[in-house]
Amino acid sequence: MSESISERMAEESPPGLTIGISGPRRRGPAQRLIMLALRLQGAHTHYIRPGTRVNVSMLDGLVLSGGTHVQPELYGQQPMVTANYDKRRDETDQRLLAEAEALNLPVLGICRGAQLINVHRGGSLCQNVTPLRQNTRHRPLLLPLQTVKVVDNTRLSQIMRAPVIGANRIHSQTIKRLGQDLRVVAVDNDLFVQAIENTRGQWLMGVQWHPEYLLYHNGHRRIFRHFVDEACRLKIARLSAAP
Known about the structure:
This protein has six helices and eleven strands. The protein is α/β, with parallel strands linked by helices. Strand 3, helix 3 and strand 4 form a beta-alpha-beta unit.
């Protein structure tokens, strides 16, 4: 296996490469696994709770982790399902996204994070996919038993190195109307969106599954590796441009 950029530059990487992880008030297993995944790639992490004010310019990248549903009011709908919402977290994540975009910081959205990215870009969500499934069974899957088809010639296809992959499934909502300057880069067997990417500039990706639970799998681990590689590139460029 070829050596990654983060491994090749381990000794010369800028000190204090720091990735912000936005999540719920209390860190759960998913957030702790994301921290582990990033640290395995040589990055430090800074956990961001709802309502926390953060100087985003001090970060080198941003991860929006999973959690509660995004408020339907943010995409022009009323609640159609019984769910927990966290208004403060939605506001925090939208502020973080806007500031990261202004600074061109790489952003990785996971499950809820991918949905929040889409809503932030003006898209909408399907609040309950369960009755719409025809070719897939709707049940939680922590193991990579969900079939996901990856679109060719995309950043995700370069990372996963396969046209069809296995992923887990914990979500009950999905992206409906696509947000501005985003493209679909993976779908499941019912053609529900499984991953999105930015179409301009900033490294930005959202995946509907949870790669942090699949760190034993090279492909899913590479998602974090490529994200950290991009953060390394950006930090080096920012330090080189500093007076």
